[in-house]
User: Fold this.
Amino acid sequence: MTVHQPISAARRAAPAQPVPLFIDVDGTLLRADISLESFVRVARSGLLLALRLILALLQGRAAAKTFAARHDPVRPDRLPFRAEVLDLIAAAKAEGRPVILASASHWRPVAAIARHLGLTDPVIASTRRHNLKGRAKLSAIRARIGNEAPFDYVGDSAADRPLWAAARQGWTLGLLPDDGSAARLGPPPPGQFGTLVKALRPHQWAKNALVLVPLLMSGQFLDPVLVAKAVVAAVAMSAIASAIYLINDLLDIDADRMHRTKRLRPLAHGDLSIPAALGWSVVLGLGGLAAGWLTGGATLTGWLLAYVALSLAYSLRLKAAMVADAIALAMLYTIRIWIGGAAVGVAISYWLALFSIFLFLSLAYLKRYIEIQGSTDPAQLVKGRGYVGGDLDLVMASGVAAGMVAILVLALFAHDPATMQNYAAPDLLMLACLPLLYWLNRVWLMARRGEVEGDPVAFAIRDRRSLALGAMIGAIFLAALVGPEPLLERI
Assistant:
């Protein structure tokens, strides 16, 4: 930790008494905003509590913070503390200086954090009647130590400007004031553009290639108008999916912080603020729906809204319901295919819908299998899920069985009378069962050995062998559609 020297000669004068160190909490001591996060947890606890929170917000920020603090006790041991601020606190305590938390959050969670850190001085924080932010916080500090007494202050935002200006020494974890009233403590915050892009999970957009499947299956993939409509639908789907990812990360912020890798997601890590996440979610969601309306009218927009509704239901409730969560995930993938069909005016066949549901049901169970593998107690629920460690074998059996049903559906599709009319060489479709059978068994065996992490679809996109098998299946379908001889002539 680098301790910066005072910024003026007047401030270098050594005081007779130890200079107190005041530390902001939200965004400074913590990579979090405990008030906003409490609002989210209270709102998702039930409709009645959500309505009462709205009424409290209408009474003012102080009243809302008080309501949230009473209904959502903070767990300091699960909060993301900044190491550089903890080092500053330790140095101040070693010098015998008072260390006081000064926050615009309610005094209940702030006091709990102070006790967790072993700080004995009373905190300065908001009450039901007073919201201590900016100059109101400075007035409270002056009332505590006197109008002329020096103090040091650590903050992070524009609201802290008057406190930095009045402090003997100011530090910042975020905004760096132009007047030099605060020095940087620790590394600068990451760029907002890169942070937002990371939060949107662009690597997941590859899943939206499913929107193109109906066009490819129809044999009209050389029509430029239909190709443009399908691409716009895929882009709209990507925007809406990213909007849902932001909401999902906000709802899962506590669970993500306890996860080995998800704790680095922008919201969980504190790199992206809750207001920014909500704002971009609205913009992306409305933008995607507008693009859908312009491309496919009410039908396409209806399917996009169905995706939004099921995604929100999954994020709010279904992800914690065993079996229902896997079915919901499978349906979210399948809806992408219906979205593609609505965009280009192609009806989705019974076989395609059935194949998609069972294939992605297998992958949904695979995703849960990977998560359950980390469980050490066979009787304890996995965090945020409806499964216990003892469910591991049954989840694997269900996933493998669903995958085998998907292969059976593909085989039956190859001999359907309608297929024989639409494909020049329908018997070739049977060959597609072999690489799919190989891939499903391979990915499940790798998962059992702990060689697959996170989302299996994301794994398949990165895995060269999976991509090669996917290309092989695509080539088989193309050969079956036009016939092997015309295909060779085109090549």
Summary: The chain has three domains: 10-184, 191-348, 361-491. Residues 1-15, 487-491 have pLDDT under 50 and may be disordered. DSSP finds 21 helices and six strands in the chain. Residues 32 and 293 are 37 Å apart (CA to CA).
